Amino acid sequence: MSHGQRLPVLALGLGLGLCHLAAEERAPVTVVRTPDGGIQPQAAVDSRGRVRLIYFKGKPEAGDVYYAEQLPRSDRFLPAIRVNTTIGAAVALGSIRGAHLALGKKDRVHVAWMASPEVPKAIINGEGQAPMLYARMNDSGSAFEPERNVMTWTGGLDGGGSVAADPQGNVYVTWHGVPPDNKDAEAGRAVFLARSRDDGKTFAREEQVSPANSGACGCCGMRAFADQQGHLMILYRAAIEQKDRNMTLLVGDPARSGLQSLTLSRWRATTCPMSSASLAEGGGSVLAAWEQQNQIQFTPLDPSLPSLTLALEPSGEGKRQHPTVARNAKGEILLAWTENTGWDKGGSLAWQRFDAAGKALEAPEHRDGVPAWGLVAAVAKPDGSFVIFY
To answer: How would you list the strands of the sheet with 51-59, edge to edge?
Structure first.
């Protein structure tokens, strides 16, 4: 597939024709409040079945990221530890600038986030820039090493960034920003990647990995993920000519063939929708989920052979944003999202289960209480059950 070629997608409404799999055969779903009154949970399950969770606490313009661990076959979380060394180093405003979590070699925890105004600006090309911060858990697993800025020559950080890690010790911190000579606003933005080959000890100078002239939607979030085979995936919203805000996937092996650019869905809009996206692996494939004109779409991905892919749109009403997706070992899928949230405005959680073929198992379920600046996070446990944090 050539660089920039569009990946075909098919959108289906799922309000009718629900799969009649017996309720007792369906993977159970547990809905859990984020510990300690935190918001913006981000979760992953490690190789031993432990849930690793990070969340935000404090003032939305300058708060802290905490890490908590849930042991297998237990609902209890161990005491949380703060990720950031500088107090108030993280930001929750907009729900898309907060911390992201990745598990890498030997289940080491890696966290990356956009710095708050409490962190001294990085001087790049003579100008102060908000840094892109990264921290990793220390060798003993007792604390996090002090956060570091990995942004060295780019600027204009706004929509936050993401982090991915693989079992081979590669760690990737990604963000979208502007090169020093940018004169095209959003159309001149790009996705940048800083790579570590030594499990996060050191990072190379960032490089642009998005195609020229694709832009990047300034206030939209992005998501990076590395699968077990070492493929890197970066999901972001482009801003071609500041009006074609297509959901775009960069996928490949950065060390070998580089990253291909694939368009997952097209959205023409003149303003930024402040959307976010999700990537998760399970049941032998990676799933991607994103917002599309107040609805949610998701699709399985085959990074080794990008080809015809099915995008499923869940049924229902309401403004839908901030999806999270999980898939268990049987291939069953859980899709969760927020409804009717907005700037400094909370809303509700919604979720829907699908079988391995992508057929809905029931109508969407709802629960009130997503706080302002809130997000939701879903994971699949080794026993096949799902957990949603909100």
So the answer is: 39-45, 51-59, 62-70, 81-82
